[in-house]
Amino acid sequence: MADIGKFNTLPVIALTENGAYLNADQLGEILLPNRYIPNECEVGDLLTVFIYLDSADRLVATTQKPYAQVDEFASLKVVQVNKMGAFLDWGLPKDLLVPYNQQHKAMEVGRHYLVRISLDNNSQRLIASSKIDKFVDIWPADYKAQDKVDLLIAAKTDLGFKAIINDKHWGLLYDNEIFQPLRVGQKVCGYIKQVREDERIDLTLTRTGNDKVNDFSGQLIAYLSKQGGHSTLNDKSSPELIKKELGVSKKTFKATVGNLLKQGKLTIEPNGIKLT
């Protein structure tokens, strides 16, 4: 079964002067224009394509990659506003419509907005909505502390950053536990810190304890390798400098250095640390 607004792997059933026709099951035959056909394409080949309606409301396939698919969130830029609504650049020739009734606030040209992409079942058109809350926290949250999750940074708050967990739930990253630059629309890996009694979810970007040290060990070794195997960072370095250079707290840095020293992977030098 082929899906509009998503990537599908479909067989080529004919090659014409206009392009390749693909068998899209219940959607029928769909054209992949010539400019998207890979070299040496033949009838019977399987191609991975994205299906959507073109400017003439015809189903069409493309090998271009939009910034998001149906049922996904993305931060997209408004490129036009007219009587129909706001239009977003989402990486395809035809811009993505946000109807006025799907705008949390009136959208302005040039600004980015966090939206969720949906398929209008009546028109078969792809649309977006900035009314994010109606799509989030409608599933029961079944997480345990230390679970690894995918996060989409959604908004800056007084406490830190709100993030969407696995495209399903709201969570919060606290400012005093963030040791790397974040921006709205950014996708990062994170961990469940705790699910509180009120069912709100606290998040962290790094695991705690030994897991946190193990996670950072590889990053520190990679950092030292890029520096020629040596760094002037040491236990006397300021927390601010360590955070700027490595994106972690001084506590994590010192614990990781100690762990790597025990493993014989680092040595302490008069002016810093060195890979063995």
From TrEMBL:
Domain called Conserved virulence factor B first S1: residue spans: 4-64
What range(s) does the Conserved virulence factor B-like winged helix domain occupy? Answer: 219-275
Q: Which domain of life is it from?
A: Bacteria
Q: Which Gene3D superfamilies match?
A: Nucleic acid-binding proteins, Winged helix-like DNA-binding domain superfamily/Winged helix DNA-binding domain
Tell me the protein family, please.
Belongs to the CvfB family.
Looking up PANTHER family in the UniProt record yields:
CONSERVED VIRULENCE FACTOR B (PTHR37296:SF1)
- The protein depicted here goes by the name GntR family transcriptional regulator
Source organism of the structure: Thalassotalea profundi
List the lineage, top down. Answer: Bacteria, Pseudomonadati, Pseudomonadota, Gammaproteobacteria, Alteromonadales
